[in-house]
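Lecture 7 notes: from sequence to structure.
We start with the chain below.
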Amino acid sequence: MERIEIINEILCGSSSRFRESFFLKNYGDVYTEIINFTLQIDKITFKERVWYWVNDIKIQILCNCGGKTSFHKNWTNGYRTYCSAKCAQQNETSKEKRKKTVQDKYGVDNIAKLDEIKKKQEQTNIEKYGFKSSFQNSDVREKWKTNVKSKYNVEHIFQLKSVKDQSKLTSLERFGTEHFVQSTNYKDKLNKIGFSEKIKNTYLSKHIEKYNNIDLEFYNIRDRVLDVASKKCGHTFSIHYDSLKRRIENGYEYCTICNPINSGQSQEEKILIDWIKSLSIDIIEKDRKLGIELDVLIPGLNIALEFNGLYWHSELYKDKYFHLNKTKICKENNIELIHIWEDDWIYKKDIIKSIILNRLNLLNSKIFARNCEIKIVCKNEKNDFLKLNHIQGSCNSSINIGLFFQSELISLMTFGQRSINGKKEFELLRFCNRINTIVIGSASKLFNFFIKNYNFESLTSFADISQFSGNLYSKLGFHYQHTSDPNYWWVIDGVRHHRFAYNKKRLVKQGFDSTLTENQIMYSRGYFRIFGCGQDKYIYKTIKLTLSEF
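Predicted C-alpha cells for the same chain:
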C-alpha cells in the first residue's frame, strides 16, 4: 500500500484525526516510522513530518535563498516555493512582467530612470545624509563595508570571484573585451576629449595628496606605473601603483632599490616566518640537508613549511612536478611538508594559521563531540561557515551535517552527488571545525550520522596533497585508490582560479577563437598557470572491496 493511501485510511476523511497524539495512540508503528524518517529535520509540525514521509523526502525543503518556506493549510500541497515576497520577485518571469508594465506606463523599464524620481531621490538624500548620493556619506560607507565583511568575508563585493567573472562576461558581450576600459569605445571617447593628460594629472594629484607624508615625490605616470623619487633614501625608481599601495599599507619598504621586487624572500614570506618564530618553537630557515630547500623546517616535529609565491612558483619558473617532488622527498624522509600558497596566506590568513597551529599541537580550545548536538545545516549557514573556516571555501552540496555546541555551529561535513557513467555517486566534499578549535571525535560522529541516515553503495573523497596527509580518511574507514597528476590553477589578479572555470568550452562561449587551445587563449590574455601536488582519491563502500578495486 502506498504511504498516501495509509494516511488517507487513517484519517478516514476526518481532519480531527490528524493529531500527533491520535497517531501515537492508535497507529504506533506508522507514527514511529514517520518520526524516525524525519529525525534530521528540526522544528517542524507533525503534519509536515507526514508530508516528508509520504513524499519520501529526507532533506528539508528550503527557499532558493536558504530560508524556510511556509507550509500550505492543505498538507498535501506541501511547501510554498518562496519564503517571502522578496524572493518571489527575484523570479525571472515576475521581473519581466514588472518591466513590461513600467515600460508601457512610463516609457522606461525602471521608474528610477525617470528624471522626476531622480530629483526626488537626490533631495531626500540631501535632507537625510547631506549629499546627493547616500554613499558620499562616510557613515553609510563604513556601515556598508562592515555588512559586506560580515556577509562575504571581503571588504568589497568586487573582490568576490563570482562578481568578477560576471563583470568580465558582461563586458565581453557588450564591448568584446573583459574590461570596458580595454575597449575601443572607451579609448575613442577618451581621445575625443583629450582625457589622457587630464587623468594623468588627476592621478598624480591624488597620489601626492594621499602619500605626501611619507617622503615620496611623484613626477610621472605611465599606464599606472609611477615614476617616484624617495626623499628618505634618495633613490629614484619606477613602481606599479598597486605594488606601491600594498607596500605602503602593509608597512613594507617601498623603494624598489632598497627592497627589490620579487627578491629571494617575499614580504609575505617574511611575515609568515616572523609569526612562526613568535610561537617560541625551534625552526631552521632555508634548510638544504635533503638536497632541496625548505623555507621553514621544524625538526622537533618533523614538519616543514613551503611558501609558494604565485609568480616565482608558477610554470614560468617551476616545472609541473616541482611541488609534488618536494612533497615526495619530504615524505620519504618522514617529514610532513605543508605548502602555503601566497593568495591563501594573504586572503585566508586566519584559516592558514589555524591549520598550522593544529599541526603543531598548539590549539588550546578543545570540545568533545559527545557534548554536541547534531543537526542538518541550511545552505546559507553552511556557506558562511565554510567561507570562514575551510581553506577551499564553500561548495555546492546537497547534504550538510553539523555539530552544535551551546547552539553554535562548530563542525561541519558536507556531501553531494554526481553522475558517473549514468550512475549517481556520493562524494564527501568538505569537512572542517571552527578555526582555532579542536572538536574531538567530530569527523567520526558526523560521518556515522551520514551512514545511518542515507542510502549509498560507495562514497568518494579527495585530499589535497599540498596541505593534508589524508590520515583522517583511514580513520573513517576509507580506502586509498590512487593519486592524481599535479593539478593546476590559472593565476588572475594575484589569485589562483580553478582551471574548470577557464576550459576551452567556456572560453569559446565567451567569444574567444575556437581554433586556439585553452592555454593559447589564456596566455594571450597575459595569464599563467601554477601547479599543485595533485590529490589522493579515497573510497568508502558499504560492501567489502575486492583486491581488483584498489
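Points to note: Residues 267-359 form a domain with the Endonuclease; Chain A fold (CATH 3.40.960.10). Residues 382 and 400 are 7 Å apart (CA to CA).
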